[in-house]
Batch of 2 targets.
Target 1
Amino acid sequence: MSDSIIDLRSDTVTRPTPEMYRAMVEAPLGDDVLGDEPTVAALEALSAERFGMDAAVFVPSGTMGNQIAIAAHTRPGDVIIIEEEAHVLYYEVGAPAILNGVMTRTVASQSGFMDPELVERAVMKRSLHTPGTAVICLENTHNRAGGTIMPPDYLGAYRQIADRHGLKIHLDGARVFNAAVAQGKPVSEVTRGCDSISFCLSKGLASPVGSVLVGSSELIDRARIWRKRLGGGMRQAGILAACGIVSLNQMVDRLADDHGRARQIAEAVDQLPGLTVDHETVQTNMVLIQTVGPSAPWLDALREHGVWALPPSPDRIRLVLHKDIDDDAVHRAVGAFKAVADQLMGVA
Ligand code: TLP
């Protein structure tokens, strides 16, 4: 990537830090499929500890983390209750149906978080006529809602519903560290009550590759089998896990900088003609911008100014802040938005 490009497409684009390169070179290695990879084992132990869980398994992607969790919690034909814009449903290419044979019962929401009352109403009891609900699947922060944070009292309410009906709770916590940092709470507190959590090292935490699924030892043993079944068993994966350890030890607190810069861009862009931002949704490292008319001409013109972004829908632009976007890049991105607004809206 050229230095002049400001890549706001996703926090997945972050490059490894110098400490990560060093850790990769120095990591003791083994064969993880044969069960003797010391650096993967160290990352898994550290992850489990951070979440206050028994065990963890390192996986190549957030998608695999979510899917092996669902596989481990369900049997084919079971129902998972899930918010209708969730990543598991929207961006995992039908994996719940194709890989796991589960039915999805969707619940709509305003902010990405299902009203607990509606969740309870959606529970189906296993019978001769109806499939049984097995899992409530959550996402925090919520990607398509703009990186929004789950209201603190919701998880307790979901837990009570899960206990009443014998369900498990899986959290897609791809960006759960953003939620924790934004609330000034440890990640174990923000996720208390979940049976499993998958989180990504390769987003704001800046590792090149990798996610981790945490849960009980029994669940993780089952998930490990599913990882192997899907071809996710990796050999000298300590090279990657070494970066994950740096992510957890060094890259969490700085997420607050990304959140501050997201607010800064949101405020500046909202002043411009043809663009609006709902500030209520700017809670972590994302900015969703509503465009007057289609977003495509905006994205094309921004690209000519060296600013890359993605459209989550035909009339929106998503910006994601991350460690490779500093104050100067924010300043230049705002300049590009101003120039494009002038160009497209004809306002001086
Ligand atoms: N999200 C990506 C795209 O897939 C949309 C992004 O750029 O935001 N859960 C959530 C909430 C995610 O946002 C993502 C990735 C994943 C899971 C999947 O992670 P990977 O890409 O590692 O499979």
Target 2
Amino acid sequence: MPNATARPKHGRRARRRRREDPARNELVSSSLESAQQCLFKQDYGTAFVHYLLALNLAPVFKDFARESFRFTLFKWAEELDSVGRIQELFDSYEQALELFPADEVILNSMGEHLFRMGFRDEAAGHFHKALKLRPDYPEARENFYRVANWLVERWHFLMLNDHGRNRKYQQAIQKAVQSGCNTVLDIGTGTGILGMCAKKAGAAEVYACELSKTMYELACEVVAANGMDGSIKLLHMKSLEMEVPRDIPHRVSLVVTETVDAGLFGEGIIESLIHAWHHLLLPPQRGENEFKDPSATGRVIPAGATVFGMAVECMEIRRHHRLCVSEVGSLSMAAAGELRSPVSCSSEPDDSMEPYTTERLSRLPGGFKALTEPFTALNIDFNNVQELEGLSSREVQQIRLPVIQEGELDALAVWFQLHLDEESSLSTGPREDTCWEQAVYPVHSTRGFGLKPHDELVVEVSCRDAYLRLCSVAVIRDGHEIRLDKHLDLQLLKSISNANPEAELCSALACLQTDQNQTKDLCMLECSEMALLNHQDYHQGFCSAMAKLIFQLRSKCEKRSGGNSDLGECVNSTDCGDLLYVLDVSEGFSLLSLIAASQGHVKAYSSVEKNKQQDVLRRLAHSNNIPEQRLEFWLNHMEDEQGMLQRPSREKLWSAIILDCVETCGLIRQKLMEKASLARCLLEEGGHIFPERIVVHGMLVESDMLLLESAVQGQEPTLGFNIAPFINQFTVPVHVFLDFSTLECRRLSESVELFVLDLMNTNANYTNREVKVQATSAGRVTAIPFWYHIFLYQEISVSTLSQRSHWKQAAVVLQQPLQVRAGDWVRLAVKLYKSTISIAAHIDEAPGPME
Ligand code: 44T
């Protein structure tokens, strides 16, 4: 046994000796001095090493040197980042945190680097720590809110608030345990809830695995808070990596899991269960095991699932997946090639494509129209490993569906019933009163296909890789098959020539021709980018705004160059013949530069980066008679993004800079105001920033739905367990990607102007503002949805609330609902920090007029 009292003494002696060592003191002071000199010479790497040495030797100087040390670290990290020396970057942060383990600024900054490198879990851990150290640290708060959605997805709140689902799972588990399944594994435990149900039901042994680090840590907290830390073994791993006896001592008699997404298989349940049957579960209760003791056989909850599908017409889905307009702004799109979303369920599975998106059909703006009755697409028994294994080699199944209503085929919608056991099931159907989303398999054919009653739709169901795939392949009309998949093959040609109408054959051949071109000219855009292209008001507004600016700049120029000549002549004069320079720094795909160029007298710079997308712009320029040299790709000339807003040439300033100011999710883009200030410095006289102004509007609402999606509600424990306080740490006060038009809510006020952001004059912006709004009816204010009126130029504006916009809305969810009576005045304290809006609401006891 080491002598417990001897060590501290030794330590004290060592420390005393250290303090008195003159050589050491000398080294410390010379290192500090060198550090400062290097800092002055901007040699941050050397400065950093000097600081490390000095502060490790003499921790007493830590407080004194903290600021300069941080500065040095951040500069050094920036440098390492820019040259891609990532390992060294993180090593430097580690060293810094060894010296200053509780420094929230260093933690937050390291989190930002981790986030940029794609280590979201780790990044969030750092932001969380920084915030715990200093709860009022706005940078860490903003960062934490930004990643919280990734870490603990919002559906956790919905699921925990879904009492029906909780109870059904609990009852099924209780029944199984009581019937003798006494060793249990919870795959994908999340907060630990199903594992705790098994323990509470009396299971002798409970194991639970979770692959997300954050969720695993959360589960540990929850399980401990419920006094079960000794009795549930939590593992931070994917079930596929688990082995007996390394991770669990022996095979279990029950696996419980809810690792299913809206498309059923997206979380890998098939693979997990095949692995579990081979490695983690006792043999199934079948054949010779039919009457064996349940503790000696294995089973799974849920026992199986039935998947349903239905063809739908839905404008909201259509405009997110294919081009629905022939003109965008002033541009004809005829030569664009095929533009579509990457969500595709082609018969050859391709990893880069997701086969479906998810939507809550009942909440789609504009609704949807069912074109067929719901049909059963698949039945699967989770207790039959042969069936699970056979799924990927199952023949592609063809189903013929009678069309019941006329309409355009936009998508196949999919949902399922999860059979927990023989008696109980959960449904994720669009008409159920649950929070589940449905899977949406969009149809891409460029020309929409109109279905009619008496048609039959042919759908193929397959499961060749991990995903369930549904594809509408053909329509049978009047006995003829019309293929919907665009790759026409010989078989189709044959079928047409059998029917023998010559014209049809010719058009099929023509189609074949264009299809080949289209494959070559295929360009995939994000769903939000597709919706943007289809957003006509935005492009039209922009077109008019640009025309006005150009007219104004050129009139000014005409006046300067001597008066009475008209604009036509002006082009020939040296002065006014000069081009106007327009820069579009929109994120992602944007046609705005081209729209500017199409106005004439403009040289436009686009920030589109991807080659395929640049090709689309070039094709469109060509087909819209825009000379090639009038469109440049800005980033092609740039070494790094920092030079982003540099002027086009030394003598020339920008006539217009287009900023992309609102993200699809409904939030103001980060660093928008910084970009606007920078942009203003680079404008020629009379030059303009698009948009010039953004007005933020909001409204008081009572919406229980928003509460259910934000935090576990109510004082009651969840199934008797204490879970809410732990998961609610991940509550974020701003809800994004909201569809205000279909949000179930009561409106408690008119809309009110919350804020004005003037991009042409940032100094005029306030960061705090008090706004008064009168309640129009009584209720509980639970949230304040907000949106923007984006003023492009003078009165030309677009609203992010408009139905056909590509934007969603956001909402501030109040920490405490506020009870109001009709006529009450509510005082809103609106704050804008960087690009994050926060709002606090109080009843105004001394009502007065609006400020
Ligand atoms: N989505 C439902 C539920 N995991 C998705 O890390 C909710 C959809 C939904 N852990 C609207 C509403 C709702 N081994 O924490 C996750 C995940 C983990 C695993 C260990 C594995 N093999 C896995 C696989 C997943 O399990 C947890 C749950 S999975 C996702 C559930 C009403 N739209």
